Amino acid sequence: MVCILIALPQVAAAQSVAEVKEETPTSAWQGSAIAYRQSMGVQGLWKSATPTWNPSFVHSLIFEPQWNITENTSVSSEFSMASELTQSDWTTDRFYLSDMTLRGTFSNALTSSLLQTTTHINLGVRLPTSKPSRASSLIMAPSLGIITERGFAVAKGLKLSLDLSVSRPMHSYTTGSLQGSPIDGCSSPGCRELMQMPTRNTRLIFEESIQAQLQLFEHTVMTAYVGAGQGLLHTLSPSSLVSFEPDHPVEFHFEMASGVLLSHPLYSGMSITYGLSSRQPTLAANGESRDIPLLNRYTRFSVDLRAELP
User: Fold this and answer.
1) Can you give the residue range of the structural domain that contains 158?
2) Residue 288 domain flag
3) What does pTM read for this prediction?
């Protein structure tokens, strides 16, 4: 009898909570998420992949708060903290930060019954919280993005989307250059190439990507994307300390990116995503254009564990 008396209030309480949940409006923080990511360089798995073995293993914590002002209007942010467990190529810091992005999104801003498409618009700004951005004297980078998507009745659901964006990085200094050779009396070709590496910040960035999202099973989704980015560089300014110009001055930077993601839910509000991504920058450090294969030092495999507010 005691067990029944104890159990009955619990059932009643559960029923009352369920009734309250049905009447409670959606949380304004719906869509906010935190993710833990582990990623590794694919080339580092084989010692013979490159002349010098350079493994890379990074884990990071990603914060993505979001506040829904109305049903179709929201403001969000993205910020991450990472640490490389292998020897880093660019920093000696144990932990390092990414840039912080603030974004306002207007969902369903434009719909077309003829094309059966939905268009979303977002306005954003990137702030220089990372060391590379501060080193390049970045003040901020406002951006405008347009996403158009359409669904198709294929398998359990197919959605195609086109993402276009433009951003304007704003720097305190735009065309800084080396103040002479860092090695006294050095006149070898290596030093000459080093002298051809001025800090040429980007003045305008265009990005385009196409994404296909296919639901394979009831809860498993595969996403594939391919994109390109173009950067217009600031022109080189003359310097009395540099007696020559780069052999191949380039005012345009081009980069390709592609990847495949496989996502599956674990529990309510939690999911795991496996990803393989790569990018191919085509501008060498000395200003010359170059061809980069699809599998290169920027190809990475990642695993994300993501928790999102319902």
Assistant:
1) 30-308
2) yes
3) 0.79
